[in-house]
Amino acid sequence: ARATDGAQLLLLSGAPGTGKTRHVVSFSRALGLPLLLANPTDQSGPSGFAARLRREVAGRDCVVFFDEIDRYSDDEAFASELRQFLDGVCQPSSGRVLLVGTTNKLKRLPRDVVHRAEVISFEHPEAHHLAEMWHSHAAHLQEADLAQIARKSAQAGLTGRDVRHCASWAERHTVIEHLNRESRLGYCHGAALSTCPGPVLGKYLQCVAQRHAFSE
């Protein structure tokens, strides 16, 4: 962003677990800019936020990240300071500054702030994207099984975070059940672990169903 134009604001909007924070890191890496985590409530509070941010980024090219920016939406002091920074009143005289905020409650943000921003919406992943995610976590399953679990995951509204959780849950419970079964046969844990199979399809589907029930 040019100093005369004020800072740029990018809002990533979507449900938790849809990859918003991961994309913030990707943006900063792709731009070759350092990533700074903003905390408007530090020190003097939101009323001095713009001045503190100006000092922090003066002469620097950087990405400033507001995690869950909507949590400050009820604080008019923060909204006012953010407007000043975006409009260039407190903008540094040099350097490219990109402000990025994540939110799953876009409607809570002041309309004029949203109007100043470019909004990117993150939707729940579709079945073919979920199939790719599941393949990275459960490559031992057959293609038909991966397609089934991806379809069930899409129907349940799972996100990438949910897939990682279910994969970890299935692996953990499979190991526990295997160790309990093998220990009764006299195997030590080390030997038992070496023969532990990957989770079966049903174990993954069990967690998918649990996540779906929890979200309802």
From TrEMBL:
It holds the Pfam family AAA. Residues 6-126 form the AAA+ ATPase domain. Gene3D superfamilies: P-loop containing nucleotide triphosphate hydrolases. Coiled coil: none annotated. GO terms for molecular function: ATP binding; ATP hydrolysis activity. This is AAA+ ATPase domain-containing protein. The lineage of its organism: Eukaryota, Sar, Alveolata, Dinophyceae, Noctilucales.
